[in-house]
């Protein structure tokens, strides 16, 4: 082993030993602070913990240290200092929750005055998309009354997106997403009694879902439902077309070629509804989300003024677009991270309002 490699390994070993030694030392400091508090030696508690508050405690140890300091300051008749330390505790852990069945009254009282609810969340989503179409009005190069056509999914598309949510209440949030979605669907038709046409279309969309969400319960697992609208803009569309012809018992062979660009014959803008449901799994300051959504696009897919503009489709494949709509099913996996803000509770705001009114400090009416 070279001298350089040995020096690097030795330095890494020393750093690990230093961190381990600091953790061991802070474990002892926390244990010592517990004993000092129980013994009533309040004047030594804060100085014992101070060296590990910035760096040394893990998250749960630091939370316990804040609790000990708050109680020490309360019992030492320093309520303002205790309240300030409680705010520092909420800054350290915005999801700190006082167990009213076991917590000291001093902590419960502070929890009734201040909390740190989530105001915003941001995250990402991704997942497979299954799309199909529904005919509105039939069009054909032959007899549209005798033509048969069906729509179905054609493999799997995808969606990937970013999302931002604003919490309105504990149970309700409003959100917006920016999505890139690929949708794939298939139409199959019979023309003139002998031509079978397969039309496999792939579309790319930029979408901006605007969603309202209701959470049914809160805990480790949180079921929810969503409802919203989706402005959507198509940025690309192409189709793989194939015509197979038969005469009696003979198959005459397939007519096919390169993918056909369909973007000029499609309405670029559409508007969809979305309804969804799923479940959130709570992790510290965040959620992992599993969700199913269904979207239905209200507007016709076809730019009707250009329905017959592509001679390749008309004369090589005997294909012309119906008026049709599309819908899809999305299976989404997501992650959101919450941003909290320390605020006075409604109960505390009401208490201050009543104090001001009793003191004659009423707000002026406009």
Task: Give structural notes.
The protein is α+β, with helices and mostly antiparallel strands and 366 residues long. It folds into 2 domains: 18-117; 118-340, Porin (Beta Barrel). Helix content is 28%, strand content 44%. The protein is built from 7 helices and 14 strands. The strands form 2 sheets. Strands 2, 3, 4, 5, 6, 7, 8, 9, 10, 11, 12 and 13 form a 12-stranded antiparallel beta sheet that branches. A two-stranded antiparallel ribbon has the order 1-14. A hairpin with a 5-residue loop joins strand 7 and strand 8 (221-247). Helix 1 (3-38) packs parallel to helix 3 and helix 3 packs antiparallel against helix 4. The longest helix has 36 residues, at 3-38. The termini are far apart. 25% of the residues are buried. Residues 16-21 have low confidence and may be disordered.
Helix content: 25-40%
- Structural classification: alpha+beta
| General shape | elongated
CATH level 1 name of the largest domain: Mainly Beta
Q: What's the mean pLDDT score?
A: 88
Q: How many separate domains make up the residues? A: 2
* SS elements, strand count: 14
In percent, how much strand structure appears in the residues?
A: 35-45%
Gap from first CA to last CA: 82 Å
Query: Taking Cα atoms only, what radius of gyration do you get, to the nearest Å?
Result: 32 Å
**Within the CATH hierarchy, at the fold level, what is the topology of the largest domain?**
Porin
The number of distinct helices, counting runs of at least 4 residues, comes to 7
Order of secondary-structure elements: HHHHHEEEEEEEEEEEEHEEH
List unreliable stretches of 5+ residues.
Answer: 16-21
The CATH architecture designation of the largest domain is Beta Barrel
Largest sheet: 12 strands, antiparallel
């Amino acid at each position: 082993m070279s001298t350089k490699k040995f020096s690097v390994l030795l330095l890494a070993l020393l750093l690990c030993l230093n961190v381990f030694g600091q953790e061991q030392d802070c474990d002892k400091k926390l244990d010592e602070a517990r004993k000092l508090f129980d013994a009533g030696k309040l004047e030594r508690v804060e100085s014992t913990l101070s060296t590990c508050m910035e760096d040394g405690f893990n998250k749960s140890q630091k939370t316990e240290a804040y609790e000990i300091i708050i109680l020490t300051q309360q019992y030492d008749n320093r309520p303002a200092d205790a309240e300030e330390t409680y705010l520092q505790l909420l800054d350290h852990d915005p999801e700190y929750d006082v167990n009213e069945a076991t917590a000291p009254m001093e902590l419960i009282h502070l929890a009734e005055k201040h909390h740190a609810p989530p105001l915003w969340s941001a995250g990402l989503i991704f997942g497979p998309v299954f799309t199909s179409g529904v005919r509105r009005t039939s069009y054909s190069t032959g007899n549209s009354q005798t033509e048969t056509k069906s729509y179905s999914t054609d493999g799997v598309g995808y969606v990937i997106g970013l999302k931002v949510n604003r919490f309105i209440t504990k149970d309700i949030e409003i959100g917006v997403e920016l999505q890139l979605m690929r949708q794939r669907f298939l139409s199959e038709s019979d023309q003139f009694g002998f031509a079978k046409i397969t039309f496999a279309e792939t579309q790319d969309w930029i979408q901006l879902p605007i969603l309202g969400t209701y959470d049914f319960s809160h805990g480790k697992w949180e079921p929810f439902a969503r409802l919203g609208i989706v402005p959507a803009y198509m940025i690309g569309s192409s189709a793989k077309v194939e015509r197979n012809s038969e005469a009696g018992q003979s198959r005459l062979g397939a007519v096919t070629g390169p993918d056909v660009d369909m973007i000029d014959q499609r309405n670029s803008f559409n508007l969809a509804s979305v309804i969804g449901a799923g479940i959130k799994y709570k992790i510290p300051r965040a959620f992992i989300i599993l969700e199913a959504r269904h979207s239905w696009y209200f507007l016709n897919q076809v730019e009707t003024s250009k329905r017959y503009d592509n001679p390749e489709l008309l004369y090589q494949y005997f294909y012309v677009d119906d008026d049709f709509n599309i819908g899809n099913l999305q299976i989404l996996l997501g992650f959101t991270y919450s941003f909290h803000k320390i605020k006075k509770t409604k109960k505390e705001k009401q208490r201050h309002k009543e104090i001001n009114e009793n003191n004659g400090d009423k707000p002026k009416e406009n």
